[in-house]
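mind reviewing these tokens:
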Amino acid sequence: MVECIEPETGLRFVELSHEWGHGVPVWPGDAEVQIVRGVNHARDGVMSQKIVTNMHVSTHVNAPIHLIQGSAFVGDLPIYRFFGSGVVLSIRKGRWDLVTAADLEQARPGVQKGDIVLIVTGWHEKFSDSQEYFGEAPGLAKEAAKWLVDKGAILVGIDTPAIDHPLATSLGLHRGGPLMKRLPKKYQDETGRDPKVDFPEWNPAHRLLLAAGVPTIENVGGDIGQVLNTRCTIHAAPWRWTDGDACTVRLMALTDPSGRYRIETGTGG
């Protein structure tokens, strides 16, 4: 458990990120995170590291430019989208399930205009370098993404490796896939359904959200089980990266059990 209680205000900080670093699970087909210590304490009296990484690793935010040509980069996104009131919705789903608009409508607390929305299917518990985590995860239905846009969500996260169902990504039969070569046949053999019929579009939910200007967070995790079905303040600020398509974030929830804390006015005095 990674939790911090600020002693003066009583504010409770809850970690919602997976770990990042050497050996972290990466999207199938992507290069591993590479970290090299350029200098170290034993030789140089200081430590400094060089990193080569894809930003779509661990808990990360996607800017609209990731899938929508000519749209906003990470550094273009207004900072209000990454800090504010939001809801953590527990919508448990099994392998290859879809989160639907009806699921979101029934979840509590209800989504309000201007909310950051984090969807928890339970899949964060399986976070690993495994065919199960990447290939058998649930995903967000296209109509559920539209429901979130219509509700006025400003940021949407999910505890799976992709916003969309894995068969609607390049892991399946889209965009030069399947990157997981056995996945389409496994889905058809075990469900009796044709993945080309069930998932005719490539990343439809993700593209719908990003086209509406709503950034997305994938691989939500950490201790999110501590704040299920709650309304809280959520922090997810990325780098101010001018040409960034995505960025790893330190996602956290802030709660105020006493109800006494208020942000300073900033007027001095």
Summary: The mean pLDDT is 95. The domain at 7-19+55-164+203-255 is CATH 3.50.30.50 (Glucose Oxidase; domain 1). The radius of gyration is 19 Å.
